[in-house]
């Protein structure tokens, strides 16, 4: 028997000796005073009468057992059980019929009362039916999606499309669509929300079915339902994928019994036990409020709130008799919720802090002293689950009084050390109750502010309501933080392991369960709860961190918090099977074992490396070297795992993690031999405080400190692992949930616009058109109700998710990740051990701060904002091409993040603020050849650095799309141009200095342009053919998207060429460079191909553009022709020797057509009307900052094409396409360079005289010619 202070009293073997035998040893008061006390605590029942001789005699402890049994026997009245009540058939314990009464795939809780849909439309019924009388059951709605709740008969047959209410003998209420169902459907009731309680009432005497929502009747839904012989109704539900509810058939007290007092629950309440429990609780209250004055020999009334266990034998023995009967009753969920929880809540009703009510601590001491361990364990478990249900499904009142009340009681219970440790070990974080408790409850239909007629007053009223709501929620959040602080207490070591280490191990297991997408949904924490959980946990961690800073001034503050790199490679923290930057952990241990020994003093046992290698070979044989599942999770050691984790790949990681023997050595002096310490990776549940915090000569979690890491205390090591878990938790689901909530704000805006538009239409509607006016007014009402509903929901979201405080939490997490990445990067090759999610969280948290919290909270107001932007820019610039990172997904994410980063002025300036060496390295990586890497993203980055400087390239949106509304104005591609002259200058320097890199880069750009434009032309041919087919008048959406992407890539590649030739024209025009002429000819060929395809009369491009297909909005003449024009302008103007050479190359290309240039300039259509001139031309462009002053056709011709060949004698006699540009030695025959270069690749003889060619010189026609 467990005890806490004093003597252990075993209830089962308890036997008290007579007073005469031990009058002094027991310390019990005299016989008369004892009798008075016991008669006061256990008064005779009124049924026995005051003159009963049996109760006038002296009452002692010897008689107390029989006396108490007799009192309690009076409560054994005949219960109105279902056996005596006609009208109900089935087991006494009513649950969901998981064996035969279901359709589809569902997850049912262990108690057979909760259910989650896991298929399209699943249905399930209860095990009990009713055929006569009035009956009720309650449904606790956990999600607000598509569900139909009600009654059905045994004859109803459901499928994946039809559920409860879709067959003749089934009836249902659907709060999602606000309708009732019985084959047909009509409007009924109100919309429900997560946290609501639906009551389903059936009156088989009157033949009616009624539904209630949160205790308020929605009216009779169905009347004259089928009754009579052979007809009985089962409770039933149909629900769609991932929707969840919990049933209460009477196993727990009904939440709103007073609204339907004449209706019976399907499961009869334990009336006898309930009466006994209340009677025993009354005796307990009397003991607490009565003290014995031994000096005056009288009983004294006292305040029960100050009662304490003081070892008084009289009181303890009295309590032992009470608990002999009370303890078994407290193992039943109905009695715990109805009796014990209400009693404990009444103790806190006086208000004040929880510390002002020590009685709850004393009562819990009493529970552990006088109850068996299994009884107190079950009692605490049921008590906490009852508190969770009450918190989740309580009505929202203006001051959140119910929620605060339940949280205060939870805090009071968790202040009791032994109870807290039991709950942490056995209840919290199992099935996510902690996350449920830390979620602020908000229901959409609650009123936060009163609307007024005037818009301005309405807005002000809404803002005041939001402010009041935020203040209420802050009180709730503070209580939740107190709960977490109690769980993170690491000083309560009096009864075993401290709470923090129990919490830490359970928290790690919680993360493992939620890190897999293939886990059972019943054990996964909903993401909306995860968001609230992470904010409370961050607050609790920072408070403990700063307390440690005050006690140890040499450590760092929470503002500078980071996770040291040792955690990633020393095996002390289990990262399951999450991907590392350098690949699998087993691979890294083998390939980087020398680096671990040199930099971190960690030596891997060669035998273990060989064992992991054999595992790799076995796995390759079994799986064919299949790639590791990215979402899988594994845990090493003896920890039991679900069957779905037993894959060969995960088994390999487990075997390595659980068996790897790691030798660590702590250097004493530089020349002294290292002292080796053998350690073994432990499973999470096997770790102790010493394994985490370390002890004499043992660094715990920080074993293996690299030389680059400063030798400075950070904080308590357990907090470091919890912080690491917080980062992982944000990556799992928090960021995704933050993005989902933004949709509500967008919906509010859309409905507000629709409502305003409808009101304007009503004002303009003619009075004679009453039919139109009526429809408009109906629409106005719908829009107003929906807007009101969404506005209230938005108020909750802004207060609980997007507030300033929550923004600071996410910002702190961003800075933690940045510092962690910087410290890990300094370790060199060991950076590969870092889990990928740190980089993901750094990128995603910045995205959340920029996109999700505005405009109510501005990121620019955050402390150290510019410095943080610069640090993140340095990370993106360095690691997007880091060879230590091997994962394709994370490399793509880094590239996309950098591409988005350079689209916004502030973040682009941050990139410009990083050290010049890093900027040059970034540009060098961007200018690497495009082959064998994601070149499209690289190209977008270069384009965005140029946008705003190119010819006609200062637009935010394409001119022909200006009249349309963009889907999302916050997209990076829709931001105003913000070119970077600094980075352009770096690009010019690199291309000028490194001729080989410049040639390979431009060759790859030209290759990709050739591919992209060819693919685009092929795609529009297919689209045109599909559009012209009479039997098929639609085009595949994916095909349109690919076509638009190829066009956008072609334009962007042209812009990169424009950028290059503007910054470094000598690459193409200085023919002393080895590859200049070849590059220029390739460029001319591609430009002519583009012009010919786009400018041909009635060509394919025109026809597809004129179709105006959705998805091809960006395909137009303007963007591609302006890009080509920008290149032409740069290579041909101003007139010079180089520009004349370029013009000669352009004109000598076989694909050149003068008509294309005329089309571009608007010539050749002089006879056409303005209506016919639908194509783009420079002639019709308005002069301005977006264009160069070259719109006059004559000036263009004079400047651009002064050297057009006019005589056939000037053309190459071989191809008759290019001008003569080369003369052979020694025979002096002539041709174009293209022909002679191609000829000399295979033959050294002259075309004409067959003489051996010894050299080729440039040829220029003499002026006299």
From TrEMBL:
SUPFAM superfamilies: Concanavalin A-like lectins/glucanases (SSF49899), RING/U-box (SSF57850)
A cellular-component GO term for this protein: cytoplasm
UniProt feature, compositional bias: Basic and acidic residues: 686-696
UniProt keyword terms in alphabetical order: Cytoplasm, Metal-binding, Methylation, Phosphoprotein, Transferase, Ubl conjugation, Ubl conjugation pathway, Zinc, Zinc-finger
Subunit structure of this chain's protein: Component of the KPC complex composed of RNF123/KPC1 and UBAC1/KPC2. Interacts with UBAC1 and CDKN1B via its N-terminal domain. Interacts with RIGI (via N-terminus) and IFIH1 (via N-terminus).
Disordered as annotated region, ranges: 613-632, 686-709
UniProt-listed InterPro entries: B30.2/SPRY, B30.2/SPRY_sf, ConA-like_dom_sf, RNF123/RKP/RSPRY1, SPRY_dom, SPRY_RNF123, TPR_RNF123/RKP, Znf_RING
Catalysed reaction equations from the record: S-ubiquitinyl-[E2 ubiquitin-conjugating enzyme]-L-cysteine + [acceptor protein]-L-lysine = [E2 ubiquitin-conjugating enzyme]-L-cysteine + N(6)-ubiquitinyl-[acceptor protein]-L-lysine
Official protein name in the record: E3 ubiquitin-protein ligase RNF123
Primary localisation category: cytoplasm
Subcellular localization, as worded in the UniProt entry: Cytoplasm
Broad EC category: transferase
Residue ranges annotated for the RING-type domain, each copy included: 1212-1250
Pathway: Protein modification; protein ubiquitination
Gene Ontology molecular function, alphabetical: ubiquitin protein ligase activity; zinc ion binding
Pfam families, per the entry: SPRY, TPR_RNF123, zf-C3HC4_3
Every B30.2/SPRY domain range: 74-254
EC number assigned by the record: 2.3.2.27
Taxonomic placement: Eukaryota, Metazoa, Chordata, Craniata, Vertebrata
